[in-house]
Amino acid sequence: MLSNKKLNRFLRVAVLGVCSSMAIAPVVSQHAFAAKAAETQKVSSKIGKPLKEARDLMDAKKWKEALAKTKEVAAMEGKNATEDAIINEMLAFCMVNLKDYAGAVAVYEKMLAAGQFKKEEEPKRILNMSQIYFALKNYPKAIELSERYLKATGGSDLEVLRQIAQGYYLQ
Prior knowledge:
Layout: H1 4-28, H2 30-40, H3 45-59, H4 63-74, H5 81-97, H6 101-114, H7 122-135, H8 139-153, H9 158-170
């Protein structure tokens, strides 16, 4: 039988592991959003061609090259709001796959501030951001975004409530 001290430590490690893995899994599916958006939204050929090249690199799991290509596109002038949103999605996705979580969450912060998330997606994106901040051990920001998520969704998600409690405990 485990002592209370060992049990508490085991539970902390287990919760951190679950929260850390939860932070990454939802973000990975964002590539599908970016791919679908690129196909269904208005994207100029000037932006669309290099974006497709970046997407092909992403499909080949060449994350560094895809990130570099996406940054090239991001630096181009004359992009519309849809193109900016797609580019930001692709940047964040590449960064997550390169384990640059701080970079990815910075892109998501930019997208949130610019209103680039669809209204129905915004709470889930806020949750994703809180999970990334938790994995980065930025507990105050993780708590802030988790509470914002709960407020937007009615406050009944037990996993998020646990993350908030864990964040308060760890900070």
